[in-house]
Automatic annotation (TrEMBL):
Keyword entries, A-Z: Hydrolase, Metal-binding, Protease
Protein name: CNDP1 dipeptidase
Protein's gene: Cndp1
GO molecular function: dipeptidase activity; metal ion binding
GO process annotations (BP): proteolysis
Amino acid sequence: SPQLPDGQDLPLPPVILGELGKDPQKPTVCFYGHVDVQPAKKEDGWKTDPYTLTEINGMYLSGNLYGRGATDNKGPVLAWINAVETFRALKLAMPVNFKFVIEGMEEAGSLGLEKLLEEEKQCFFSDVDYIVISDNLWLSNKKPALTYGSRGNACFSVEVK
């Protein structure tokens, strides 16, 4: 676990691992997303409370939804959950086996995630055929972004006295 500047250990939030389906005839797709956010204050330019999801200009789901993390990355995480829910509600066969990795430390460099991936590579991840990184925003109402590559993070702490 990471340490605060005063040396105190900071416990990490748990990473959610979920799965649905184990059909060996279907590929297994693992979807990654995160639910943590960057800090925000109303004084930063928000028209509404950044931590209260607010709809503007329309009735529910026809207007624009504003709130910290609505696009990065709670919206994309919820989109996959809604897709699974829709297949189940319509009693349609799932086209793939689903695995989900949902974490709460991405904005801080995914602390603890690498260790979990290493620990679970022979168990939870052993049958994964594809990984979808669902961590991006829509560029407009008609142009979703497609993540096709990622780069590393450099994290550090600076204490000024």
